[in-house]
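Methods: holo model generation. Sequences were used as deposited, without trimming of termini or removal of tags, and paired with ligand SMILES retrieved from the corresponding compound records. Each pair was processed once, and we did not select among multiple samples. The sequence and magnesium ion SMILES for this entry were:
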Amino acid sequence: MQIKTYTANSMKDILSQIKSELGSDAVILSKREIADKTFGLTARPLIEVTAAVDFDAGTCDYRLTRPGASSGMPEPALPAFSVPPAEHLAHDITELKDMVKELIAHSGMKLHENNPLRKKLLSRGIRPNLVDVLLTKLGAGAKESAVRSLLGKLVRAEEPTASRVWVFAGTTGVGKTTTIAKIAAGGVLNHRRKVGLITLDTYRIGAVDQGRIYAKILNIPFMSVSSVSEFRAALGKMGSLDLVLVDTVGRSALCRDYIPHLRGYLDGIDPCTFLLMPVATRDSEMDAVTRTFSGLDIHRMIFTKADEAIHAGSVITHNLIHRIPVSYVTTGQRVPEDIEKASSSTIVHRCLGERT
Ligand SMILES: Nc1nc2c(ncn2[C@@H]2O[C@H](COP(=O)(O)OP(=O)(O)OP(=O)(O)O)[C@@H](O)[C@H]2O)c(=O)[nH]1
Ligand SMILES: [Mg+2]
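and the model returned the structure below.
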């Protein structure tokens, strides 16, 4: 199964993009209007659609191909003796098919409503339309083991990119500095790597000290910078290190100039940029924050504070919708212990519990 998100001014444009990239068997998972920030106040709303492909062709509710639309396949030639009544019949069948599709589309939830597996997946915080798509894909009698194995294939978990500069971004208090300390300690203590720390965080009183203290404990170089040229100079000084961890300013992502300001620092550096997000964040907030930070080119996710979340379905929902691979999950306040490398199976276990 392949999942992609498309943005454009019109649904028509999006549908033709989906059709050409995913084919006409694609199904629509979510659709919403978002503000186009490019042109300020005069902006027209944009439409954002997430679509997926590789479903049971006959059972999906929102197939792009409507009856009567061309499938791209050559039409079979009608036999020469085809007479008007047969045409009527064909028309009636098309109409009936249309009605059945409409009925399915409007009763999609009901198809799985009493399924205990659906209840379990919802109780773990996976978004309802994703749950229904998964169950539709697997069929009515699907077992939990089948859901686990499908999710195991779909969830994207990957190591950070090969860059030696790792940038940690996210809204205030999500755990950026603590996570950096955990990763720095792991690099120094377990892998004997030469690690350095740069903080762009000169906004909040005490923030620089927090980084400086961790660097002192680990005996690694630390620099605090407040301009792009200072940042470039600091990177130059740390040029011989294996890994440079960059802490960013903790400010609300809704602050208009925040992302362009950060982008100014990162242009031309080609870092691995992580977006940090607490597991217990509401879906809609996760979507909004991810969209805001997409201006930075986010390469990997780090989900934080998993220990504070009642369930972890938000991680699966975010991953299936946004398709940004997860590299780490943090699980508590202790430095350096409370962090784990992400894998699709640990994410699925975290969400659905250990296999029974
Ligand atoms: N329970 C729990 N707390 C965490 C975790 N990671 C960080 N914290 C706590 O969250 C609080 C904020 O952590 P910071 O690392 O300062 O967060 P930050 O993103 O750097 O914050 P700003 O720089 O202000 O934006 C601290 O009290 C941390 O101990 C975690 O995995 N679990
Ligand atoms: Mg911080």
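The mean pLDDT is 83.
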